[in-house]
Amino acid sequence: MLSDQVLSQLKELVGPSYVLLEPEDLQRFGVDRTTLWQPNPCAVVLPATITAVQAIVLLANEHNLAIVPSGGRTGLSGGAVAKDGELIIALDRMNTVIEFNAIDRAITVGAGMITAEVQAFAASHDLLYPVDFAAAGSSQIGGNIATNAGGINVIRYGMTRDWIIGLRVVTGAGDILALNQGLLKNNTGYDFRHLFIGSEGTLGLICEATLQLTRPQTDTTVMVLGIKTFADIVEVLQAFTAQMALNAFEFFSQAALDKVTEGQGHPAPFATQTPFYALVEFETRPSTNDHAMALFEQCTAQGWVLDGVVSQSLAQARALWRLREDISETLWHWQPYKNDISVRISKMPDFLADVDELVSTRYPDFEIVWYGHIGDGNLHLNILKPQDLPQTDFFARCGAVSLEIGELLARYGGSISAEHGVGLLKKSLLPYSRSPVEIALMRSVKKTFDPKSILNPGKVFDSLT
Ligand code: MLT
Ligand code: ZN
């Protein structure tokens, strides 16, 4: 509960209509895409400037009020869930282009700007913001930065981190920091920018970001290949990446394809049904297309690939992408438990065999849907909830198996969260990827930037009191 005094101070800071208290607003802003926790924030506040954000953080410090930063709320790990009476700061009003510089090929935007709008702005200047994923139409750039979003083009362009050349943040202590200021070279001690990227709102509120843009791509060609086994996907990946520059190498299972074709009405890529599918994207040029066709034939001759299709137009390439990009949205119907794991590519063949065996032994009665960004070592293992099983029982069972997956990942030096972040969902798994010393250091870093632990408390790890 907010005291009347704090409430009227908040209203004074942002304007009365930008402090939301209606149950539907609290419900809407209090969760991300996870469905496990009940939202229960005390209020939602929508500041329009970084100084207003600073004033709110200082007020929260004074009154020991916990804050949950909120972006587009497309997160999958509970990082933006406000379940314990926190104050939500949403930056939806800070959603404009602040500066564009064609010489630097850089754009500075408010953190509340929708990712797809940033992409569209770049495109309107014949440039590219290359981080892309299915939720780009509703996620906000600040949230992307806070989780270091990855997506479908990581093998070519890297993660969000690789495109951030400047940040303005308000720390948990209420300081405004201007980090790196758009510089390409800046060796002046610790680069705090990179601490804030991927910090999941635990160190500060990202209010403005300067993004590096790049030259746009030429048109792209998409190939979907039907593949026989898990191990064969890795063979095909190696065959292609050894010889071609790819934009993407994604995979999905027949179960994923069935859900998408049934749920969205998309046509299957070809008549043959195969256990797995790889989606390969590359820039369209006569030489690359011929090369890809030769590799396709080589992989077919090896027996790894059973069928395939190559896009003949941009429209067909886009339609093939839908088969991969619409999986996540389609699966929400089954309230899936999501694992988002990664290992080094070189370890992938052995890891896949081990994780496949573990999962099929431990989930004999659950439906499993595999997909992900296998080109960068990232697998999305989704377990679908049987209709008659209560969600809490389902999550408890999946949580227990996830600990075993965590142990396996630890043996392989892998990650329990490749791109979705830790949030609330994967807190208990963190020790499988990060050592006790590292976690202790994370706690001290948090204390430095957020001494009263008011920012997104309980996310990523629990602070020691
Ligand atoms: C994806 O790759 O489709 C996204 O990370 C979302 C998901 O894993 O469900
Ligand atoms: Zn993904």
Helices, strands, pairings?
Blueprint (H helix, E strand, L loop, with lengths): L3 H11 L4 E2 L2 H7 L13 E3 L4 H13 L4 E4 L16 E4 L6 E5 L4 E5 L4 H10 L16 H7 L6 H4 L6 E8 L4 E4 L12 H5 L7 E9 L7 E8 L2 H14 L4 E6 H11 L11 E8 L2 H16 L3 E6 L3 H12 L1 H5 L5 E6 L5 H15 L4 E7 L4 E7 L6 H22 L17 H4 L2 H14 L16
Parallel strand pairs: 2-4, 3-4
Antiparallel strand pairs: 1-2, 5-6, 6-9, 7-8, 7-9, 10-12, 10-13, 11-12, 11-15, 14-16, 15-16
Helix pairs in contact: 1-3, 8-10, 13-14
Bound molecules: D-malate and zinc ion (ZN).
Zinc ion binds next to loops.
Report the oligomer.
single chain
Number of helices: 16
Task: Tell me the number of strands.
Answer: 16
Return residue spans where pLDDT drops below 50 for at least 5 consecutive residues.
Answer: none
Q: Indicate the CATH architecture of the largest domain.
A: 2-Layer Sandwich
First and last CA, distance? 22 Å
Q: Any idea how many domains? A: 4
Spatial order of strands in the largest sheet: 13-10-12-11-15-16-14
List bound small molecules. D-malate, zinc ion
Strand % is 15-25%
CATH top-level class of the largest domain: Alpha Beta
- Rounded Rg: 23 Å
State the share of residues found in helices, binned by percent.
25-40%
Largest sheet: 7 strands, antiparallel
The CATH topology of the largest domain corresponds to Uridine Diphospho-n-acetylenolpyruvylglucosamine Reductase, domain 3
Can you tell me the overall shape? globular
Overall pLDDT level: 97
SS content category: alpha+beta
